[in-house]
Amino acid sequence: MLCVQFLWILSEVQTSYIVSSVGHMCLSTVVMAKVLGVTCAGDQSLFTSLYTSLAQQLPKEPMEWRRSYGRAPKMIHLEANFVQFKEELLPKDGNKALLTFPFLHIYWTDCCDTEVYKASVKEDMQRWQNILRLHSSVDWLIVVVESDAKKKNKTNILPRTSIVDKIRNDFCNKQSDRCVVLSDPLKESSRSQESWSSFLTKLRTLLLMSFTKNLGRFEDDMRTLREKRTEPGWSFCDYFMVQEELAFVFEMLQQFEDALVQYDELDALFTQYVLNFGAGDGANWLGSFCAPVRSWNGLLLRRPIDMEKRELIQRGEASLLDLRSYLFSRQCTLLIFLQRPWEVTLRALELLHNCVQELRLLEVSVVPGALDCWVFLSCLEVLHRIEGCCDRSQLEANCSHTVGLWTYATEKLKSLGYLCGLVAENGPTSEDLNRTVDLLAGLGTERPETVNSMQSPYKKLKEALSSVEAFEKHYLELSHAAVEMYRAIGRMRSARLVGKSLAEFYMRKGDPERAEGFLEESLRLYVAEGWSLQVTHTRKQMAECQKLLRQTDDYLQTSALLAGDANLNQEERTHFCQEILSFASQPPGPSDQTVALSMAAFAQLRQLQFSPPGAVVHVGAALQLELRVRCLMPVAVHVGQLAATLHFSLEQGGARGRAGSSQRRPGQGPQGQGDGVVLFPQGSPLSGAGCSLTPALELYEMQDRSPSDSSLNSAGVVCKNVHLLLRRHDSNASLDTPTAGVLPAAVAVDDGAQMLRARDVTLQPGDNSILFTAPTGEPGSYTLRQLCGSVGRVQFVQSHIYPVVQYEVYSQEPQLTIEPLSDNLLAGIPQRVKFTIATGHYSIKKGDALQLSNTDSMPILHSSRCSATILSSTGEHMGERALSIQSSEKVTSISLPPTPPYHTLEFQLEVLCHIPPAPLKLDSERLTNGEVRHRSKSRSHADSAMIHIDQKVSIDCPWSIYSTLISLTFYVPFKAKHTLLSAGRRKYIQVCLQNVSDSNFHLADPVLVERQPTTTVELLSLNAKRQQLVCSQQSLFCLWEMRWAKDLPPCLQCEFSASFVPISALDPPAAFKTYRYEFQLDRVSTLYSVKAEICPASGDKHCRTGTLCGLEVSITRQAEPSETEGEEEESTEIEGLKTTKLMYEVVDNSSNWAVCGKSSGVVSMPVAPSATHRVQMEVMPLFAGHLPFPNIKVFKYLPHSAAQVIQPDTDSCLENDNLSLLDKGLDDQGDTASIRSRGSVHSVGSGEQQREQQRGLPMPRLEPFSPGQVFNWTQGRQVLVLPATDDHVMEVNVT
């Protein structure tokens, strides 16, 4: 298919590469392959004179190469192979080779004479054109070279353009650009340089266009050939040669990435056919690759092109290994050109594994060991090839890419050693020697490239198979090199795997001492990462090694682990278990000691249950522990004694008792499930073979309490096994990690020590239950530390138990507590309280009694039938005993029944807290210095506004010489307040009684009486019902009318009383209790009445919005003030008429009215009954409808000369909310408009007035009237206001 010239061109592709002085691989020179063929016709001597300049100038400038199918453009340098034009060089029909294809044809001429042109040049040019047309070649160019020297020799020449024009007219009618002129190319003038530049640009453009066009045609033909792969007769080898030719073209263009893509596509296509063959869909052409393998000489990467294997592929005689070897060698060459040598190693490892699988899929006959030889040689060949293009520093930095090949080569050499008998203890047999000879024969002769190399793969393999010593030498070299590389890159798993392979090799050689170290490292890694199957297999090897080395303790430990390993079958497990039992049953010698093994290999703790569940008992109490254990042995094992050591501590429990203990009880931790059960986690070190080397955290609560009052200062968490968590991972572990190589020390069992013991226990395979009785002789905290099971001469020890298992033995002092049976104790009614005596270590004897001090405010109610309940420490009911209660004036004595220690005595009593009468005047909330007054006894409850009373009871107990002071809090269930109401001259007193408790009461007989010595007022009850129900948070209002014959007294002292009883106490009937409330009323007479009238504008019957209306305010004196009231008012006398000054104010807080003009003023009222003062002003309604009247307020106007009167305490009476202040002094003017501002009653006005007052200027002041002194007739009245017009729009929404 390809001619001899193609082989010459291939020889140019063999570009050498060297390693620079800095260790980086680079190409020595960029050799431009002459892939673009160009034929030269016409004047050959002319072309020869220009060839050197043309060959040098053409590749200097890059060209942008745009390809089809959206591929990215690239910049390439073009270099042409100029040859003399011959018709034999033109492609024949069916020959589509790219490498021998001439992409451009150039005709050279320097003719400048018309006669010569017509005589010879035109005819020769015509002949050249006909030949090109005959072979369908349309890529041509005519170059006319002009020379000034030649023009001077010709006197009759035509102008310069005459010959060029003739040529264009004769040959380039439609393609005038195919004829170019090159002026004086051998000169260095600017005209010559410009002509050269134009010519080279044209030449590059035509070359690139022709190459792109023909390359596209070639790719289409190749694609068409690939699509015919399903047709009969299609050959992969033929297609391989076609696509490889495309790869060669890209490689010669320095497009190594595109060339590599072609080989990768061939690789993927062949792989897919092999996979299809394995699935039953085979192609006919694969039969040639199924031939038996006759040669296994490995890869050849020292040649850019392996022509021998290429010829085999071209002839269709290549085997699978030949095709794969040649294909990988080409990929390797291109990857090295791309400076990606590390990808070569990755692809090589994948290739070697795939070839082994492909030979099995194609069912190719292979001599045993032949594939191992091929893989071994290939691995070393790839490594040598990489070493040749990289320096040592690069190899060491990138050993992660090569270590896989070292390991694979080690495995194959080991396999060859086993096959040829080089690992056997007795050496190879004759059959092994014959097999070795056959394998060496398949290697053939050594290749010329490696004959002179002392470390060639061929020589290494031949030497390794020659003797046992040589094999061991090469195998150990490769193995140790692989281990060191894996350790250098941190791949410890792979290093341990190679080490395990070395251990197997040493065991086969009968050297268990060297194998032990590698097995221990591998086992430690597998256990740490939880590879159970690998752990089992390695332990079996370890047991064999330890048995040969006579390491009895270690062998027994490993046998125990294997006996409990579920990955082994029953027979193997029983064998290892019998090894332990046989050793345990042997009588010990004089120097023999007890062998301690790990409990994790023997049994697994499941759970521990305390009885009683709280794991807190008093001294001498019974405490049992039920331990559930899963025996891992395959047969029943008799345990002579199972014991658990206890650590005693006084940190918890002791004299402080249960109240001071902050210990986490069993069942309350993360592993607990309540009811005194402690669960042992499966992932703990107790779980055996698959456990982690890192122990679990042991966290404890730490509390720092004040020694004075035991208050908590700080709290924290402390870890008690930091020494286990922060150690080095490679350190020898304790017994909890049975693979660490350190066995536990035997536990000495002392009969006098504090331990949990169970004797003669037979553990069946699976779950077992063992019952222990815990010692409780001394108060303190007991912690389980170790667990030890003795089987003859063998002890199975668990030196650390997690989670922490503790129980507490306490010695408690007697305690007395009194607590109510309800949420709140209510005053005024009998309440039951519960007495609880925790006897602790004290025994209540006959005659012991509680002495309670009596108080008048809280008597103790008792009946003849009063009993006490006795409970055990576990809460079990032990019985009831009668109580004897005797009361005297100061002491109540309660005789206690005999009660043993650490029991509880409970009984109930009734107490009654009397409700004190409400104070005549509540304490002021603030003192004169501004501090809040603290009330000692009665104060409001923060949540429910209930008044509560603290009652303290002193109790003398028989077990103590000191008195115990108990405080009980009672809550008053009611809250009362009063209000003085007025209706003209008539007066009413309203009392509101609110039930602020959570109970419901019946109230009866509400009574209001005057508490003065002489009765001056008659209180007429207006309450219809005698008895009423008042539920929780409800109020009852009672009303009385005041009637008097003469004048009202200035001060009226009253007492309200009502009988109450809880609803729950009606059945059986209970006596009613009385609630009293005392209060005082001051200044109760009505001094003034205020009336107001609103008149519409003239001409209107009703007021309208937006229209001014008249407001007339009448202030009428109803009675003369009493002496006390007269002292409070400032009066003046003018012309025999005594008057007082009042200030009125009209405001509308609801914004219904707009007060126009002055809204406040000062008036003078005569001190005479029925004296009236009228004030008129204008108001404007802002809304339509029935509007309430504006608010009218009246204040006492006291001039600056008047003495200040202290504001009286109204004691729960209703007061006016807001007061208006004057902006300036009102002494000099009668009426003025006021600026309303909210403030203190004693405040005079604005900030300016306050500042003037600070300067010492006298200012008037205002004081409100007491409730009932001013009666407003317009309170609650409304006036009809109509809209401004009748025209309005009503919006109605209908849904």
Automatic annotation (TrEMBL):
Q: Which GO terms describe its biological process?
A: early endosome to Golgi transport; intra-Golgi vesicle-mediated transport
Subcellular location(s) of the protein: Golgi apparatus
Q: Which residues cross the membrane?
A: none
Pfam families, per database record: Ig_TRAPPC10 (PF23604), TRAPPC10 (PF12584), TRAPPC10_1st (PF23036)
TRAPPC10/Trs130 N-terminal domain: residues covered = 37-344
The record's region (Disordered) falls at: 654-679, 1229-1264
**Where is the sequence biased in composition, kind Low complexity?**
658-668, 1234-1248
Specify the TRAPPC10 Ig-like domain's residue ranges. 816-970
Query: Domain TRAPPC10/Trs130 C-terminal, which positions?
Result: 1050-1282
**What keywords tag this UniProt record?**
Golgi apparatus, Signal, Transport
Q: Which superkingdom is the protein from? A: Eukaryota
Q: Signal sequence span per UniProt?
A: 1-15
The record, for SUPFAM superfamilies, names: TPR-like
Q: What are the coiled-coil residue ranges? A: none
One term under GO cellular component = cytosol
| UniProt cross-references to PANTHER family, sorted A to Z | EPILEPSY HOLOPROSENCEPHALY CANDIDATE 1/TMEM1, TRAFFICKING PROTEIN PARTICLE COMPLEX SUBUNIT 10
What is the protein name for this chain?
A: Trafficking protein particle complex 10
